[in-house]
Write a structure and sequence with these properties.
Layout (H helix, E strand, L loop, with lengths): L4 H8 L2 H19 L6 H24 L1 H7 L12 H22 L1 H17 L8 H22 L6 H21 L1 H6 L5 H5 L1 H24 L5 H22 L6 H20 L1
Helix pairs in contact: 2-3, 2-7, 2-13, 3-5, 3-6, 3-7, 5-6, 6-7, 7-8, 8-11, 8-13, 11-12, 12-13
């Protein structure tokens, strides 16, 4: 039996990823507040982040339609479960509501939201064609939820360190996804790292990013910015990341992208547990 329309819609907007992004915004706010609290601006920032993420994922799938017919034919658009017209309606509505929520939250939130949406809209049709530039851009945007939440809570600097750490992990995952998508990306003329420099270079770049992630994730604990709960959780996470590094250097790609998403969830837990 084919997936239902709600299930297809959830797949289109990457519901699980939206929840991770929303959690990042909330935790950024909690870090700034020093407690788990929900001021109104933080609520609006979480709502805006969900809409922005949905709009960005839909725009990505629309731009990637030809490549996904090769790389991911089971996705909602290439499989025909969702039409391009319906996807544009969903993405446009999500983006509009996101900007409205950010505007209600404050002009500073609106400015960040508008910039993030602009990057997401040009990522697949433009930035992704230029290898590392696209990977870096999307990694930074993926890490911004922490700062977005911290800005909403009134102390932007509280979100900068987790934003930087998250961006490193997201960068590695973006390169891994490029390795997975070589066939489709090559067919539509993209010049991602594995295509422009060879798949071996892609594996090395992804592994190098994860090597950098290990000391970067531990540095806040050693500096005394986060406590023992964060440190112990991140130590376990880094052992897991070390296994992924070994897997990449052995050119074993299966499951790495999913494992990196799980690592993101553990990182969110480490930050939240430190403030409970």
């Amino acid at each position: 039996m084919p997936p239902s329309w709600p299930a297809s819609l959830a797949a289109l907007v990457r519901l699980k990823n939206l929840l991770i992004g929303a959690a990042g915004v909330a935790i950024g706010g909690f870090l700034a507040l020093g407690a788990v609290r929900w001021p109104e601006r933080l609520v609006w920032s979480v709502a805006a982040a969900v809409g922005l993420g949905a709009a960005g994922y839909v725009a990505n799938d629309l731009a990637d339609l030809d490549a996904d017919r090769i790389n991911r034919p089971g996705r909602p658009l290439p499989s025909g479960r969702v039409s391009p017209g319906a996807a544009r309606l969903v993405g446009g509505t999500a983006g509009g509501l996101a900007l409205a929520a950010a505007w209600i939250g404050g002009r500073d939130l609106f400015a960040i939201a508008l910039a993030a949406l602009a990057v997401m809209l040009v990522y697949s049709p433009l930035l992704k064609r230029h290898g590392l530039a696209g990977n870096i851009a999307v990694a930074v945007v993926a890490g911004v939820p922490f700062t977005f939440g911290a800005v909403a809570a009134g102390w932007a600097r509280a979100g900068l360190v987790p934003t930087a750490i998250a961006a490193i992990l997201h960068f590695a995952r973006e390169v891994v996804k490029d390795l997975e998508d070589v066939a489709g990306d090559r067919a539509i003329g993209r010049h991602t790292v594995p295509i422009a420099h060879g798949e071996s270079a892609g594996y090395v770049v992804a592994a190098a990013a994860l090597v950098l992630f290990v000391p970067a994730s531990l540095a806040p604990w050693f500096a005394g910015w986060y406590g023992r709960r964060y440190g112990l959780t991140v130590l376990v996470l880094d052992v897991f990341v070390a296994a992924l590094i070994a897997r990449l250097l052995a050119r074993r790609l299966a499951g790495v992208s999913t494992a990196l998403k799980a690592a993101m969830v553990v990182g969110l837990f480490a930050l939240l547990w430190d403030r409970l």
